[in-house]
Structure formats: structure tokens, C-alpha cells
Write a structure and sequence with these properties.
single chain, alpha/beta, Rossmann fold, Nucleoside Triphosphate Pyrophosphohydrolase, 5 domains, twelve-stranded mixed β-sheet, seven-stranded mixed β-sheet, 18 helices, 30% strand
Amino acid sequence: MSTTHTAQDWHAHYDAGRDFSPLTDTEKSILTEHLTVPEDTQGARALDVACGTGELARFLAAAGYQVDAVDWAQSAVERASAASTDGVVCHRLDLTGGDLFSLDPAGTERYRLITMRRALAHLPDRTRTVAELAALLDEVGVLCVITPHADRHPEELRGICLDDAEIDLLTDGWQHTERFDAEGSTVLLLRGPKTDPVTYSEKRTPKPTAMAGVAVVVTNEHGQVLLGWNPSRAVWELPAGKVEPGEGFEATAVRELAEEAGLHARPESVVLLGTLCDSTHGFTRVTEIARLTDYAGEPAVREPELITRWEWHTPSAVRQLPQPLFTASAQALNTVWPGLLPGVPPAHHTPRPAGDVALTFTEPTTAVRLREQLVRQLTDSGWTDTPELQRAFAAVPRHAFLPEQPLVRAYVNEAVATVLDEDTGRSMSSVSQPEMQAVMLRRANLRPGASVLEIGGGGYNASLIAELVGLSGPVVCVEIDPYVHARTERFLAETGYANRVRAVLGDGAHGAPGHFIPENGFDAIIVTVASNSVPGRWADQLAEGGHLVVPLRIGGLTRAVGLRKEGPVLVSTAISPCGFVPMQGVGRWDETPVPIGDTGYGIRWEDTQPAPLDGLDRALADGGLELWTGVTVRGNESFEDLQLWLATSLSGFCRMEGDPDQPGPVRLPKRSGAEAIVLGRSLACLMTERREHDEANGTSLWEFGVQGFGADGKAAADTLAAAVRAWDQELRGQATPRLSVMPPGTPDSALPAGHVVEKTDCRIVVDWPGRDEAGGRSVGQGTARGRSDEQ
């Protein structure tokens, strides 16, 4: 039970000259004894929540803290500011829906102490609020809660008090708790917020009746989901109930929401997401999932024998609920936000076709601020260099496509994995790094009204595309993984982009289904998974002059390549290094290296005809020679173009694999593999060695060297070293590689000058403008060979 008031109520309270109960001597004594700033600590920060007129904030400042005092009543903040002393800064902030993290926008400062006196009972969402406050504490920080105790006050004051059951619920989320009595109040000192994942629990065995019900997932204006605390069964749960005879699921959802929580909605506002079927206590349980954003009223306890508290919870924070979550509610939440909760007992889901009911997307203030902060960061770094890109990134809520991530994590300029391979732990699907998305979107040359095909799901990038092309630009998103496809459909529906993006389950290597292809082809195709080739379907479905942007794998490394269609040829417009999850389906490739005997080393053939490795194990055992090229790079300098040059200009190119920490003759780098060539039964590998190190700025100078093994090891090493020197003298910083992607049957005579990489679906010619390419060669599915323009 609790009593809540509006900010205006409290403003009127303080504006009339009224105050709060002053600190008692006992409270002061407890605070002084247990929360005094250590003498050797400078600048310890404290946060006084619901500060009122600031008495406690001033007490803390006198004890040595730098205090932020916050209250949601304007008159309280004004009075606290007028009476404040050195060390106290007052802020107006709505604790129930405000942005607590705005007190530390950079995310670098934390509080040693957070106090909340005689306020917690007034808050409707205590669990969420306390969790948000816990996130603001430093590693040894303390949350101090002072609350009137229900057993020491008359019934008419029960609304401003907490009882033992409510206090126990609060302390569940902390590793260390201390409790003191203070003249009718309880003082709690809480340390070490728990971060254990939420567990799931069943209720008691139900009566033998029909187990068909509806679970209602309702969110408020801050995007928070409503959960109720069931003390008799010790679980959090969604509003839910059994279907009455002859009652539709929508009607059940509306009725139960009103009966249990006092919220009123219309059946036509309910979106049904499908049916879950599992078993519990020997019964078959059937749960219809109802989604709702349009309602009236505030949560209120209507059936106290079942639910004693209703609270709004941030979806991502439900992963760390300190108390159990009812299993059927967890299953329903994972239906609305696939991937939100880990390890939920499985239930069979029969989805419903999407209806015409539109959900209203809402989000917390924190998300808006973090998104604006990300856009500023991208713009200041030059990634979002057009107003259109800036508006797109400012409009699309990235966190809505990463519901399992905390808000702060969702808006970091990094890729975030959403699916991991169970065996290797590698990312199999992710939401890409925003700066890389900006690069690829810019290279796609998107314009209002453009038609776009995206290969790879998730929904966030497709929504960015939708913002750039506008309402008239059709966007088709093809995803092969059913789970990722389901996430894509749900998140597009949650954010309102479902009517602008068509999500399709299928193998993206085949392009879009025929009925989605515009008459003249797509204006742009954006591939968001690494591809080992350029399938012919992509070129066929691209309009003349259209742009294809693809993370293309050449020589074992992936580069974001922008291509423009010019007749039957795709010509590169830009190229840069990148990292993307690998393509699945028919475009999948095998990265397993071919072992070199029992040496622990292996060869990965990259776009090159494999050669016999007989005798290489003996060559490695005999030791090799080292040859230094005199070519150096700084530690922070990219040499991606060198790797592309070696991969496309050297016959027998491959990558040497092995454990760089194992003792052995090959000096492998810490990164994945080394560039190498195989020449007969001999081998040469690229290596680096540090020559200088600048302690002042932390940069080093590295020299390229080559190791050679086998009878022709010297010749192989000379060949590899000569290629490195040619790059240094002729290409480095002077030439940008140009790619021409040709159909697979293109005769040699029709190819431009350059080095040819044979792929399964195409022939790629790599040339370096300004350099004589008469000595070009072809690698790949056929035998490596030289080629001239006359061939």
C-alpha cells in the first residue's frame, strides 16, 4: 500500500510554507556514525532524492559531501536553493519519469552516497526507481533509505509508511543490508546492488479448470511495462486472467486490466500477438498474448488478495529483477520483445497475422537524451555529415531494437551482438556499429522515394533507411534466421515502422521475392552481412545506375564496398575496412584451415586454388630464414590496402593460422592469421617487429618482415617482400583500389586490366589506378595464372 501525489500537489505543499518532519537526533547519529566521509577522501559525491527544502542535503554537505539535491516540486527546489550552503546544488527532476542519468551526462561520475528520506512510500514504482538509483552508485556506494514504519504509526498514516514485507522486498536486491530503528522510522543502509539474472517461478497448483487465459503487456508513456507483485506466490506478474465462457481475448484483456489494475481500455485497442502453449503441474496452459499502449487511468490495487502493488518497469531492467517473475509472464514478455529474457522455459508460440491496430511507441527521457548524444558524437566525428543522416539517427530509437540491453549500452557507438554461436561464442547476428551504418547509408546514395532492398535483418538499419527514403520509398528486408526475422517483425511493429518496411523470411543470397521487386529494379541494395561473393541476383535486381553496398570478403578480410551498376558491370565507388557477421545459407563459407601435418599450423586458402601441402611440415621443422623489408608502419596506422594488394597480386596467396602463443617456428601476429604464399613445398609468411616505441604518446614503429621455409623458402620470401616494397613505393597513400564486378561467364578479353579474383558468382577485377597492371593475374576457382589484355 502506498500514497502517491502529483508534482503539483507537492509544489502546492511547499509553496504554502509547509515543510517535512525534521531530522531526528537518532537519524543524525546513525548518519554520522555510518556515513561520514573518510578523511583521506576528496570530493565524495552524494545525491539526496526528494530533498524537500534541503535539510538533509545541508547536513550531508556539512559532513564533507558534494551534494546534488533533487525534488520534483518547483517550490521545494526554490526553497532548498535559497537555503543551500556551499557544497549543495539543487535540481528539479521528476523521479517517476525523469532522467536520473542526466545528473551525470558523461557517465563518468558516480555517487558515494544516495539518500531518500520519507519518500519511498510515495513512489509507485519502487523497484525500478531503486534499481536506477543503484546504477548511480560507485563501487563502495551506499543507498540510505529512511522511511516511517507501518507498525509504529496509526492506520490513517499507513499510506506514508512501509511494513516489514515491503522492506524485505526492497532489501532483496542488495548484497549487504543494515537496518536501524529511529523513533518510529527505519533506516536502511544498502550496499552492493545484486546483478543476478532474473529467475522464473510457478504459482501453486491450480484448480482443475480450463487453463486458458490472457496475459496483458501494457506500457506507459515512458515505454515501461506494468508488473504486479503477488506476495502469496512471491512472484511478479503481468495483468492476466482466465477467459470467461463466450468471451473474446480482447474483451478478456480489457476486463482483467480494469479489474486488477484499474486501467481502462477499449477492445479495439488490443493487439493480439498469438498463443503460447506449455504445461504446468500436469495441465496444458494456453496463454493469449495481448499488447496494449492505449489506455486511461493510473495503476491501482483493485484485488489486494492477489496483487498488493503495481509498478512500471523498464523492460531491459526486468532481466535483473531481484524477485522471481511468473513463468507465463516471462514467456509473454519474450513474445513482445524476443530475446529480452534469457533462459525462459520454452512454450510453443502460434503467432497471429498482423492486424490493423497500431501501437503507440513511447520511450523514457533517458533514451531521447542518449540518442541525441550519439548523433552529436557521430556528427562531430564526421560520420553523419548530412542533415538527412542526422535526422534519421535522431528519429530511430536504437534501444527499441536492443530491448535486452541497458539504455546506455544501446547508444554506444559499437556493434551489439544479438545472436551468438553456441559452440564458438561468435556473433551470428548483431545491430551494427552506428558509424559503419552511416558510412554504408551514405554510399547507397539514398534519396526520397528510392526503393531499397536490405539483406540481413534486425530492423534498426531498415528503419534508418525508411527515414531516408520517406513514406513513398518501399523498403524490403530479407533475413534468413527465423529468430532474427521474428525480432525484426516485432520491433518494427513496436516502433511504427512495420507499414514502411516489409520484413521477409528467406535467403538473402537470392535477393528479394519477385513480387517485391520494382519494375526497374531497386535503386539501392544494402547488405548487412559479410559476403564472400556478389550473387548475380543482386546485380539483376539492381536498377541501372543503382548502388549496391556490401561487406565483401576478399583475401580473408572484409571491406565495405560501394558499387554502382553500369550496364552488366558493378564498379566500385568507395572501399574501406569493416567487420560484419558472416552470411548464412547458400552464401556461407568454411573457414576451417587445412592442417600442415601435426605442426599445429594450418593454411586457409582465400580466393586461391588450394595447393598440396606435402612436405611443409618438414620444412617448418627444419627452420627458416628471416628477411626484413625496411618498410615500416606506425602502430595506429592502417595497412588494409597492403593486405588487399597481397591477396590479389600474389599467386599462391593464403593465410597462415595457428596459436600465436604456442612455441614454434612461425612468428604469428596476435590478430587472426598471417598473410602468406605457398610456392611448391615452400612457404613464406608476413610478420612484424617493433623497432621504436614512443612512451610519451604510446605509439610504436613496426617493420614488416618475411619468414621463408623450405627448399624455395628464399625465393618465396623474396617474392612476398618484393610485393610489400612495391606497395610501399608505388601504392601507399597514392592509389585507391578499384573493383569491377563482372558476371561469372565474362571472357578474359572483356575484362579490364587488373588482378582477377574468381568468385563463385562473379569475377572481380582489382586494379590500382596509375599503376601498370600488365602483369595482372587471376586467382580463385581455376588454376592461378597470368593474364594480359590479349588473352
